[in-house]
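Much of what follows relies on a compact textual record of a protein's fold. Here is one such record, which you should read through line by line:
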Amino acid sequence: MIEGFSVILALTKGISKLNDIGQRIKQIRKSNDLTQIEFSKLIGISQGTPSEIEKGKSKPAVETLQQLSKIFQTDLNWLVMDDFEKNSFSNLQVEMLVKVRELDSGIQNEILEFIEFKLTRLINKTTR
């Protein structure tokens, strides 16, 4: 798994404005500082394929899309249809999610418990 890239983080870099699957794939590659050769080896495609996809001359295979989603933690709906705008997040929410993803699952669970505690307090406060 490549660290530091997710669709949500990508929103802060303006990816949601990319209107073509090839452009979105190129942004994933560039965001992870990969050459087309490194990228192709990582996802298991021939070396010339990323160039063809990024230029819009060919479309990626379903298997390629699945690999991209898995390796780069990318939402397939966004990747295929640019269907991420429905889930708009504030900059703070994006930052929180990115930072939480860097933590191990035990700490993530502690954070979830804390949020649930805060929400319970908030609900109890507003029902008084």
